[in-house]
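User: Hello! I'm new to structural biology and keep hearing that structure can be predicted from sequence alone. Could you demonstrate with Phosphate-specific transport system accessory protein PhoU? Please show me the input and the output so I can see what each looks like.

Assistant: Of course. The first part below is the input, the amino acid sequence of Phosphate-specific transport system accessory protein PhoU. The second part is the output, the predicted structure written as tokens.
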Amino acid sequence: MIESREHFQKELAKLNDLILKMGGMIEANIAKSIKAIAQADVRMAQEIIRSDDEADQLELEIDDLCLELLATQQPMAIDLRFITTGMRIGTDLERIGDLSVDIAERAIELAKQPLLKPLIDTPKMAELAQQMVHKALDAFVKRDAYLARSLWEDEAKVDKYRDLITEELEDIMRKDASTVTRALPLMLIARYLERIGDHATNIAEDVVYMVEGKVIKHNPKS
């Protein structure tokens, strides 16, 4: 019985490590995707796109391990919530990875022509979105519901950046229709970063559920 429990704990630790490995890769890709835009670095953007297969494989490993633990260990209480949360986090990380690929694809588009304007708010928004992913994963590792709840404020800041960037680009396009092909990819990137923030918030909500057993998806102030 003791040996079985030790094996279970090792498998939980493995799940934790897989999530952190995937999260680290996703965080790095967010940063690299914005760098690829600023430097018109097509090769870097292509590396991000190619790395998506590895992220997808990690999500499958996380899912398989979670399902195996649920089927063979019949976990209770906090362990059960840890496993189900791990599975949901894997899904959110995979979607964040897809959004990083979307940004990389826009970087390739933008590299074909001069940037419409210096990138000021977009890198700030990207850094905040990346920090949100990191903070959500840190809350997961530390079982820290208070830290998880701090993402609500970050999400509001990301939304403000999206609105600011969108309004500025819309104003530029209204004044000069020839800028549309350079402005639209930047607007899409702001939208992708906002969605990354949404997924990070999803992870934070799952962490609160894992720690407190409380579902707050539709009532984050609870």
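User: So the tokens describe the shape?

Assistant: Right, they're a compact way of writing down the 3D structure. Reading them back into a model, for example: The helical segments are 2-38, 42-73, 77-110, 121-142, 145-149, 151-175, 180-212.
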